[in-house]
Design a protein that fits this description.
290 residues; mainly alpha; MetI-like fold
Length: 290
């Protein structure tokens, strides 16, 4: 028996144990915060009897009845939805353009697309704040600037995801469509976009999950309570006296984020399974040949 194989198999249980210890250690604070959201009293440091008071039972400060928490939740969902609608189509178009760009500046442009990803978010937030307050002062403050900041930050994620899919599928399907008489736009609409649909969906979910959890950019571009998001509200409540209603609000947003990530994971899995000729490409080519 190969000694290297035996050594590798012997280390597998240790690595698995370390992985589970890390997962449990990371989830423990989250689970504690979720459990406190079901407290019947106002304590945020100890477990009390289970109740849905802070979800809909309390008529003044529960998630269901508090106007302040409603505003934060609606702002968060509004910014995330607008960010998805704006960043995804622009990112798809930029990814297709960068994939086809052949020139001396193409490598520089590809490298610049990674700057928002590798730049610390605190630096990115300060830069956006200075840009909007010193240069683009005519733009409406509040939600508009927050949306633009989120779009600027998440656009690179869309481009990276779409470009990885473009590199995987190659150019043969689009070239076949052109050979069958399709114009460039027809080939993109009927063949390329169906091929990219799993990656586009994954991009939408990643943008949503990133935007809904963002604190730094939202806080730098916020103008007060009317434009506060859920992360800002949670941060402000953690510094002062608050009730477990913020834990309940965080739990609700956690469910939104987990649902978005789960949908993105399913989309990526579907994309990987469709490694052969995708159905959308076959349908598009059949329509062109017909």
């Amino acid at each position: 028996m190969n000694p290297f194989r035996r050594r590798r198999h012997g280390s597998a249980p240790v690595l698995a144990m370390l992985t589970w210890v890390y997962i449990l250690w990371s989830l423990l604070p989250v689970l504690i915060a979720v459990r406190i959201s079901f407290n019947s009293g106002k304590s945020k440091s100890s477990f009390q009897s289970t109740s849905f008071r802070w979800y809909w039972g309390d008529l003044n400060s529960s998630v269901w009845h508090s106007d302040e928490l409603h505003t934060a939740m609606l702002n968060t969902l509004k910014i995330a939805a607008l960010c998805m609608l704006i960043a995804t189509p622009i990112g798809v178009a930029m990814a297709i353009g960068l994939q086809r760009w052949r020139g001396k500046l193409s490598n520089a442009a590809n490298g610049l697309m990674l700057v928002p990803i590798v730049t610390p978010e605190i630096v990115f937030g300060v830069a956006l704040f200075l840009v909007f307050t010193q240069m683009y002062t005519g733009l409406p403050s509040g939600i508009t600037r927050q949306v633009l900041g989120h779009v600027t930050f998440t656009l690179s994620f869309v481009v990276v995801i779409i470009r990885s899919r473009l590199a995987a599928i190659g150019t043969q399907y689009e070239e076949a469509a052109r050979d069958l008489g399709a114009s460039r736009l027809q080939a993109i609409r009927l063949v390329l976009l169906p091929l990219l649909s799993p990656a586009i969906f994954a991009s939408v979910m990643v943008v949503f999950a990133t935007s809904i959890d963002d604190f730094v950019i939202s806080s730098f571009l916020s103008t007060g309570a009317a434009t506060d998001t859920v992360p800002i509200k949670i941060y402000g409540g953690a510094k002062g006296s608050s009730t477990p209603a913020l834990n309940a609000l965080a739990t609700v947003m956690l469910l939104f984020t987990m649902a978005a990530v789960a949908l993105a994971a399913l989309a990526v899995r579907a994309m990987n399974r469709r490694g052969g000729e995708p159905v959308g490409a076959a349908g598009g080519l059949a329509g062109l040949s017909g």
